[in-house]
Write a structure and sequence with these properties.
The protein is α/β, with parallel strands linked by helices. Helix content is 27%, strand content 18%. The protein has 2 domains: 295 residues, Alkaline Phosphatase, subunit A; 160 residues, no CATH class. It has 13 helices and 21 strands.
């Protein structure tokens, strides 16, 4: 089998098989033509299916446990307050561009999560969506950044403040983001020699989080006469046009992979995990806050607390272990029994309609072949990711009419807050992540047809084979070509 000499990876953060391969496929003729000429299918994401660390896992073939990165922010030590935002410096395994650089070959990286602060790359790199707008070093070589701003205006790293009720601003901004990202991609695709061209557009993710309820009749807040009903079709039609204009610039020796880190699904609401721990007698506050506060700012009685949790698209639960945490109370001898008891309790949690929520509580050592850094003691998918984890304490219930029928538990009793909320504590959000993203590889001499059981860990070995790079000991996954 002949294989292409170069590789272009077009990353669409949060791109979802249901949309791109089915419901909106007619809006995306360019993507559909690529699919008809290549291999494609759903791509199972990492545990958890979170942008950080998923893209670094995709390009390294390593798990979050091996990276020691379990989300955007991770515990820096076993103290109660200190968290660090995961950046490029925390990825300590080689990714595809590192392997190519060691082989003397060049890469172009545009907005790939896990590339800020700017890593050393043989070639060109533009920082990812976590790059602050005030950053001086956001492109290397620096002249690339100056040229972009001269020709295209201020560079857009992300849709700022995308959790907002200002939907008009967000809608315009995500179109602007995608348009500029692909304009930059077109410039750099023809600007010089490269072996790997890799970009990520955050537009799909921001569209899903901001507007899923305007698109999906299965969303609990769906309104068919919503002003934004046609937005998904409009956006994906525009995205497909940008995609087609980029792909037509590539020579025949370039294989094109369109891929995502995870998918999306409707978010029912938020479950107040720390309020639940308070009710279960596992988390104790010295003083009840008069208004909602982050768990990091709550006045916790650590000497009488067994567990606490962080909020996010999944819940990270930590035990207060004697000899590990500063005021730990769970003896090492009871660590596993306490964890098992929590798993059992979490699986019995009911939703706002008094029906089983369908939670999944996972031990890191059961999920990852290696666990580095400071992992959660339990990784929890609430309602199998149909609910968000709300880490805030002090929330009273904000259950919407038409969604809250039958609610008997969770109403604020003046001592503890509610368990269920349908207004996100970090701002309006319509979607949670889903475990299945997309994979679509097209190139001369490459396989065609639908794939089954493909994993995000298969991507790195596959790309290494296409680029004639040797396999790396310890990598997960298999080749798909």
């Amino acid at each position: 089998m002949s294989t292409p000499r170069r590789l272009a990876v077009i990353g669409l953060d949060c791109a979802t098989p249901r949309l791109l391969f089915d419901e909106l496929a007619e809006q995306m003729p360019n993507l559909s033509r690529l699919r008809a000429a290549g291999s494609w299918g759903a791509l199972r994401s990492t545990v958890p299916p979170i942008t950080v660390p998923a893209w670094s896992c995709l390009y390294s073939g390593r798990t979050p446990g091996e990276l020691g990165i379990y989300g955007f922010r991770n515990r820096a030590d076993h103290s109660y307050r200190r968290l660090v935002t995961a950046g490029s410096q925390h990825v300590r395994v080689p990714r595809l561009w590192d392997m190519l650089g060691d082989d003397g070959r060049r890469s172009v990286l545009i907005g790939v999560p896990g590339t800020y602060p700017l890593p050393q790359v043989k070639g060109t790199v533009i920082g990812d969506f976590l790059t602050p707008s005030s950053a001086d070093a956001w492109a290397a070589p620096a002249e690339i950044g100056r040229r972009i701003e001269r020709e295209l205006g201020p560079y857009l790293f992300d849709v700022d403040d995308f959790r907002t009720d200002d939907k008009a601003r967000i809608a315009q901004r995500l179109f602007d983001l995608t348009e500029q990202r692909f304009a930059v991609a077109r410039q750099l695709a023809v600007a010089g020699e490269w072996d790997l061209f890799a970009m990520v557009d955050m537009g799909p993710d921001r569209l899903h989080h901001g507007f899923w309820s305007t698109y999906d009749p299965g969303h609990p807040r769906y309104r068919p006469d919503d002003h934004w009903t046609g937005l998904f079709a409009d956006y994906y039609r525009a995205l497909d046009d940008h995609l087609g204009r980029l792909v037509e610039l590539f020579d025949d020796d370039v294989a094109v992979l369109v891929v995502s880190d995870h998918g999306a699904q409707p978010m029912i609401g938020g479950f107040c995990i720390n309020e639940w721990l308070i009710r279960e007698g596992l988390l104790r506050l010295r003083h009840r806050p008069e208004k909602p506060v982050r768990i990091a700012d709550a006045d916790i009685d650590w000497a009488n607390t067994t567990a606490w949790a962080d909020g996010g698209y999944y819940a990270r639960l930590f035990l207060n272990v004697a000899g590990r945490e500063p005021q730990g109370v769970v003896p090492i001898s009871r660590y596993e029994s306490v964890r098992s008891d929590l798993v059992e309790r979490l699986e019995k949690v009911v939703d706002h309609r008094d029906e089983l929520m369908g939670n999944r509580a996972m031990r890191p050592e059961d999920v990852y072949p290696e666990v580095n850094g400071i992992a959660p003691d339990l990784i929890i998918y609430l309602g199998d990711l149909r609910w968000r984890s709300v880490g805030t304490v002090g929330l009273s219930d904000s259950v919407s009419d038409g969604v809250s029928d039958g609610v008997t538990d969770g109403v604020s009793d003046g001592v503890t807050g509610g368990l269920y909320t349908f207004e996100n504590d970090t701002g309006p959000d319509d979607a949670n992540h889903a475990e299945l993203g997309i994979y679509q590889l097209t190139g001369d001499g490459l396989p065609t047809g639908q794939l089954t059981d493909a994993s995000i860990y298969d991507v790195a070995p596959t790309l290494q084979r296409l680029l004639r790079l040797p396999a790396v000991d310890g990598q997960r996954g298999r080749t798909l070509v």
